[in-house]
Amino acid sequence: MPLPRSVTSGPELHSPKEPTETQIPARGARRANSGDAPSTHREGSRPGLGTLRRAFSRASQRASGRAPEEDPGLLRRSSRFLLRTLQRAPGRGPAADQSRATMVASGATHSQEVPSRAMDGASQQSSTGVGPEELEGKSVADLITERHLLVAFEQLRHLEIRLVAEKASRTFQEDPTGFARRAMDVCLHYDGLAAEIGAIVRETLGPDGVDSAALVELARVVRAEEEAHPEPPADGDFLSTPRHWRQHWEDSVRESARERVQQAGVGEALGAAEGASGLAQILAQLGSLVRQDLQKVRLEVHPAYAAAGFPAWEAYLRAFHGAVAQRLQELAHDARGCEQLYLLLDWAANIYSSPDFLGAPDLALPSEPLPPLLAPDVWARLESDYTSFLETKIASCFDGILQLEQSRWAAAEVPDVLQGRYHSPLSMDVLMLVAEHVKAAGAISAELEATTLRICARALGLFLPRFEKAFLESEAVSEPHLGANINACEELRTNLLAKFPGSFEELEKPLVAAICVFQKRLLQDLQRDLQPLFRVLCTRDWLTQDVLPPLMDKVLTFARHLEHVAPPQAQETLQEVHRFVVREYLAQALKPQERFRGLDRVAGSQKMGLEAQAIGNTFQGLGSEATWLGQAIPCVADILGETYKDDIQRHLETLIASYPDIRRDHVLAILALRRLGRRRNQRLLQHAQALLRAVAKARGSGAAGGHVLFEEIEVPTSIDVLITCLWCSWA
Questions:
Q1: Total number of domains constituting the chain
Q2: Residue 476 is part of a domain; what is its CATH number?
Q3: Three-state SS across 271-312?
Q4: 361 burial class (0-12, 13-18, 19+ CB within 10 angstroms)?
Q5: Looking at CB atoms within 10 Å, which of 6, 390, 516, 588 has the fewest?
Q6: So what's the pLDDT on residue 583?
Q7: d(CA 211, CA 489)
């Protein structure tokens, strides 16, 4: 049936007590705290749908303080379902219509006879503190604008019931356009109520403070709507369908939280310098804003909602959690550099997730119900990017440490002596570098800590040979610097293994190797200074001069430096010096420039014995634990000066037993110091060879020690040695 061009107006959206015509929402509609009387209109004025929409848009924007904007979703939804209702209405069966009419008419009659609960006596007083007599005569639009939401809903509900009843009684059978206009009025006012709910939510966390009365009113009207429309009607009637205001409230809470979170760091530039000060400021503002808002929700907003049985805390908590997660992912997308990436990881893992984030234990963020702040793939990408930047940064830090050391070498700075040892900043710099990054990574996750340890170990392994090479090629090589570097490497070895067990074991060998390199260089310098002093030994001038003191003076000077070296390395070096002195002394004795005979030989033997005692006493006084070196020089001196030739065999036995590394060539060189005759040399050499075979067998089975002395002494092929060898072979 075609719609008529002009229709009669339906019931106006007033209190059901007033039989006047429909009233348009006034342009100057005010909030409840205004003292002016509600707006009125001339009779006969007939508002259009656009006028109603603009009125509710203005009312909503006044409440929210935002630029005018409409909710097209609500309007489209209202129009669409209303059209479906109109399309279904003419085709309904008489029985169904009669049943529906009887049921709704009964409700409408009851509504007209009994005032709404929200308007009944002092107990029906509005949450805003306005009595029912003050609300009489106000339009629904004014009630909504002044935020008497529950009263407005009760009137809308009454009009809805009456309109459904009239529809069921076929009152609009001849005038469907009239029904459409009145139904649209009701729907638009419902949408206006929903818009006002959103406006109240947006204002809740604003600078004007929390309006507890408005929140109570909001909660009650949502619950009232849920009770009025528990489920969609069987006939699909749009007017009685659930409005889902609770879901709308939750959506508004989420949108409010999102808007609040987006305010943090507005105008800050994130990708500026790698110092990450901009990001740090954004995160600080974000944390402060979320903390303040959630504290306000817990202490002010939640109690107001709780009075009406509304779970506001959980809704706000989840809304802010989601908004923070979204904001953090936006920041993560633009993060650059090691510092910025770490700031994000640290803020998410330690600051936001801290029990003290909200400033009170009872306000702690629950970790179990909430999803991860950052999605696993985002978190993994941040950690991966961070470790990539970290590798470059740690390598750069080691470059900086090397440059600092080179600057000290170039400035010829003498190492300080701290706690009795030569000190180099190297060990402290490396230990602080590793500890700082490992601690920072451990605060994020155990996996990141393990990754950082591997990065540090790998970087240190690459640094050590570079450091050795740079130092040994510099002009700063000296006993104090070598001692300081030995101490530094030993400190690194012990401290890294103790503080990070299981992570730096692979670096123990490189560190020990570096210590050995510095020890070797330390010994080389001493050996170069001592070598010329051994050349005067076992000469005729040596018999009449005291040439040992200058040599031992250099040893004593060197030993003073060892006092400032770590004890294990100092003892090793001292023993090596002790071994060097004895070895070089024997090497000079086994290749004499002149052969001693008669009294000179006896005098030389006595002098060797005295000097052997002086060498032993000196090194014993210095603390050398290489007591096994004490028999070498005296045994050779005894063989040289022995007047009872049969005792030479006993001296040989002592020498071979004490020094298993002695060879046949060394025995021949020792025998060549004496003119013993062919038979005696043959007998002594055969006996010595038997002893050497026994010693070699024992060394093969692992029964002998690992001391080395004669093995490093080269025996010259002199005429006397050749003669002694020939005699033994001819025999």
A1: 4
A2: 1.10.357.50
A3: CCCCCCHHHHHHHHHHHHHHHHHHHHHHHHHHHHHHCCCCCH
A4: exposed
A5: 6
A6: 95
A7: 68
